[in-house]
Specification:
about 170 residues, about 75% helix, single chain, 5 helices, Ferritin-like_diiron, metal-binding, identical protein binding, Ferritin, mainly alpha, binds MU-OXO-diiron, Ferritin-like_SF
C-alpha cells in the first residue's frame, strides 16, 4: 500500500523529469541556433529520455491505483555562454535529480514501501549513467575548447546519438 506522502513525492518527481525534458529541449534549441546540430540532436534525444522517465513514474502511480497530478513546469534558461556551459549546467541539474531520487528511495525505505523502493532502483542506476555521460562530454569539451575543428568533430560525434526507449520495469 502506497502512502499519500509517497504519491505526492512521486508526482513532484514527474514534474522534475518533465522540467528536465524542457531544459534539454531549450538547450537543443540554443544549439541549433548557434549552428551545432550534433549538440542539438544530443539534447533532443535527452529530452525524449526525460519524457520516458516521467512516463515511467506516471504509469507507476496509475498502476498503484492512485492519481497522477500534474503541476506547472518552470521556464528553463534560454541562453548559454558556451557548449561547455550547457553541459556543466546539465551535470548540475542531473546531480539535483540524483539527490531527488535518493530522497524518494529514503522515503520508500522509511515507509517500508518495498514496491516503490524496487521501482526506484532503475532510476538510481540510470542516474549513474546520466552523470557519467555528462562528465565524459565535459572532459572532451575541456580538451577541445569552445571553437574550431575539435568542436566540429565533437558535434559530429554527438549527431550519432539515437534515442532508445528504456525497457519496461513496472510490468
Ligand atoms: Fe531523468 Fe536526467 O534524469
Amino acid at each position: 500500500m502506497i502512502s499519500e506522502k509517497m504519491v505526492n513525492a512521486l508526482n513532484e518527481q514527474i514534474n522534475k523529469e518533465i522540467y528536465s525534458a524542457y531544459l534539454y529541449m531549450s538547450m537543443s534549441a540554443y544549439s541549433t541556433f548557434i549552428g551545432l546540430k550534433g549538440f542539438a540532436n544530443w539534447f533532443m534525444v535527452q529530452y525524449q529520455e526525460e519524457m520516458t522517465h516521467a512516463m515511467k513514474i506516471y504509469d507507476y502511480v496509475n498502476d498503484q491505483g492512485t492519481q497522477v497530478k500534474l503541476m506547472a513546469i518552470s521556464q528553463p534558461p534560454t541562453d548559454f555562454e558556451s557548449p561547455l556551459d550547457m553541459f556543466e549546467k546539465t551535470l548540475d541539474h542531473e546531480k539535483f535529480v540524483t539527490k531527488s531520487i535518493n530522497g524518494l528511495v529514503d522515503l520508500a525505505i522509511e515507509e517500508k514501501d518495498h514496491a516503490t523502493n524496487i521501482f526506484l532502483q532503475w532510476f538510481v542506476t540510470e542516474q549513474i549513467e546520466e552523470e557519467g555521460n555528462d562528465n565524459d562530454i565535459i572532459a572532451k569539451l575541456k580538451l577541445v575548447g569552445s571553437e574550431g575543428n575539435g568542436l566540429f568533430i565533437l558535434d559530429k560525434e554527438l549527431a550519432q546519438r539515437v534515442f532508445t526507449p528504456p525497457a519496461q520495469t513496472t510490468e
